[in-house]
């Protein structure tokens, strides 16, 4: 008779079975999570909260066009809050093109390497810190870390005294880094001239009606901007790659109009922005533009269903033009004029190609003809004319963009809707920057804040330092006792 005890009691068997089931479930959970992440992110993981969005099409076009070696030096304090986001973003650039190499130097912890960087790039000791340095064969551009994030002052809640903090609202890393890549791979920037002398807004002013932000948008595409007066005997400068006429309120002199007409005939690039002031005060540009197939109609479009009494929300774009990326977005314009293409019954020889670019909604009306049936009105037109066979234009292919509003790109309105994106698209199309026809903008910063009282903080501290470790120890002890039996 065999009286030996079984090697496993029922309780023991249940414990082992539960342990096996639990371990199997954990392994399966990990496998499912890995497969989910692999399916969602394919081959790359975007772990940084600020850089998990992939690089824009515009950035990828620029990065893929790089053939020279570019070294990016992150001269930074590694404990800075934004250092991980900057490194994660630069790693995406490096992954897109191995010609871009990234190195990091912590000036607080690596004094030897920091001295080498200071000597190489002639950096100072006090102010030159937290920098991202782009170097392409000796052409160097530097991004100051303070400019990478946009901040605003915000009052600290629940403070006993009036206290403010700098709250981050936008991350400009991709926008600035792509601009720097353009700067180091192109030794000479393109130049635009901003016409002045007829009531146009200031190019450098910070008032709401000025164009300082518009100038900054051009700088993102490595386009410099200078003011221009045509009242002397000099023509449009030879180095003018783009002439911008925004919101003139008085008429041009005949000599000025002749210079502009000659500039276009030579293959110039022109960006004209009218506004409602020109209804009562024609600028003189209207007949010149009509020769190029553009009608500037002296009236104002209103759309009370989309926008209101003074503004028009534009969501209808010609998908066959550079505005195609805007088809899912909207512009906000202020009292725009209708701008249409000339309906030539018998087009002249070598007529330019004219396309209406953007339209108001079908519920729109003209302020000067409120009794007319509502319909959609064109608000922008683009023109392109290549040189005739056997004729070489000194400036290349003529390109023109005409809009019925200039206020939608001023310092205040350029931030509305997709206005900023349109400004970049229009300038890059005019200059034939095909790789830059995808916009880059600041990425909003999502900030999470947990507000707790002192008692709540004390309870959380005890939970983290006592309850959780104690629970783990208790569970481990119970497992040990069960296995010992």
What general form does the structure show?
A: elongated
Oligomer status? single chain
**What structural category do the secondary elements indicate?**
alpha/beta
CATH superfamily of the largest domain: Class I glutamine amidotransferase (GATase) domain
Q: Please report the number of helical segments.
A: 11
Low-confidence stretches: 39-51
Task: Give the spatial strand order of the biggest sheet.
Answer: 8-7-9-10-20-19-17-14
| CATH topology-level fold name of the largest domain | Rossmann fold
Percent range for helical residues?
25-40%
Q: State the name of the first-level CATH class of the largest domain.
A: Alpha Beta
Question: Mind explaining what this structure looks like?
Answer:
The protein is α/β, with parallel strands linked by helices and 485 residues long. The protein has four domains: 9-43; 57-174, Glutaredoxin (3-Layer(aba) Sandwich), CATH 3.40.30.10; 190-443, Class I glutamine amidotransferase (GATase) domain (Rossmann fold); 455-485. 32% of the residues lie in helices and 21% in strands. The chain is built from eleven helices and 21 strands. The chain has helices at 10-41, 57-64, 83-96, 111-121, 173-185, 212-220, 254-265, 277-280, 285-291, 419-430, 454-484; strands spanning 70-75, 100-105, 131-136, 139-144, 149-155, 164-171, 190-195, 223-228, 242-246, 269-273, 294-296, 301-302, 311-314, 316-317, 331-334, 339-341, 353-359, 365-366, 378-385, 398-403, 443-444. An eight-stranded mixed β-sheet has the order 8-7-9-10-20-19-17-14, with helices on both faces. Strand 7, helix 6 (212-220) and strand 8 form a beta-alpha-beta unit. The protein is elongated, with a radius of gyration of 31 Å. Mean pLDDT is 82; it is low at 39-51.
């Amino acid at each position: 008779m065999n009286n030996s005890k079984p090697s496993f009691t029922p309780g023991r068997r249940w414990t082992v079975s539960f342990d096996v089931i639990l371990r199997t479930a954990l392994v399966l959970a990990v496998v499912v999570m890995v497969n989910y992440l692999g399916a969602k992110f394919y081959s790359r993981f975007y772990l940084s909260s600020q850089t998990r969005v992939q690089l824009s099409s515009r950035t990828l076009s620029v990065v893929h066009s790089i053939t020279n070696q570019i070294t990016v030096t992150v001269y930074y304090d590694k404990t800075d809050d934004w250092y991980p986001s900057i490194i994660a973003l630069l790693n995406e650039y490096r992954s897109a093109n191995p010609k871009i190499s990234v190195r990091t130097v912590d000036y607080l912890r690596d004094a030897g390497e920091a001295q080498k960087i200071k000597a190489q790039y002639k950096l100072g000791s006090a102010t030159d810190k937290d920098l991202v340095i782009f170097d392409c064969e000796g052409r160097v551009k530097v991004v100051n870390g303070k400019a990478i994030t946009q901040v605003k002052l915000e009052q600290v809640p629940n403070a006993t005294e009036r206290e403010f903090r700098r709250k981050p609202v936008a991350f400009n890393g991709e926008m600035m880094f792509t601009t720097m890549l353009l700067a180091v791979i192109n030794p000479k920037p393109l130049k635009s001239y901003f016409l002045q002398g007829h009531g146009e807004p200031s190019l450098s002013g910070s008032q709401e009606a000025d164009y300082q932000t518009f100038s900054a948008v051009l700088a993102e595409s490595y386009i410099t901007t200078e003011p221009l007066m045509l009242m002397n005997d000099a023509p449009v400068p030879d180095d003018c790659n783009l002439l911008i006429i925004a919101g003139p309120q008085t008429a041009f002199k005949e000599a000025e109009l002749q210079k502009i007409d000659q500039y276009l005939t030579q293959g110039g690039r022109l960006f004209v922005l009218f506004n409602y002031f020109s209804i009562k005060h024609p600028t003189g540009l209207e007949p010149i533009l009509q020769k190029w197939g553009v009608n500037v109609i002296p009236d104002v479009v209103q759309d009370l269903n989309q926008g209101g009494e003074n503004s028009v929300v534009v969501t209808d774009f010609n998908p066959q033009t550079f505005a195609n990326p805007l088809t899912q977005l909207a512009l906000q314009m202020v009292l725009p004029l209708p701008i249409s293409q000339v309906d030539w019954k018998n087009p002249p020889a070598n007529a330019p190609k004219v396309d209406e670019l953007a339209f108001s909604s079908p519920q729109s009306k003209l302020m000067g003809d409120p009794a007319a049936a509502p319909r959609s009105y064109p608000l922008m037109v683009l023109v392109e004319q290549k040189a005739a066979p056997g004729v070489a234009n000194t400036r290349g292919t003529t390109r023109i963009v005409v809009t019925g509003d200039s206020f939608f790109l001023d310092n205040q309105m350029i931030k509305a809707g997709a206005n900023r994106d349109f400004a970049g698209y229009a300038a890059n199309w005019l200059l034939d920057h095909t790789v830059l026809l995808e916009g880059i903008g600041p990425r909003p910063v999502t900030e999470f804040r947990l507000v707790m009282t002192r008692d709540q903080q004390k309870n959380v501290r005890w939970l983290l330092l006592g309850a959780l470790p104690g629970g783990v120890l208790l569970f481990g002890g119970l497992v040990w006792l069960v296995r010992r039996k």
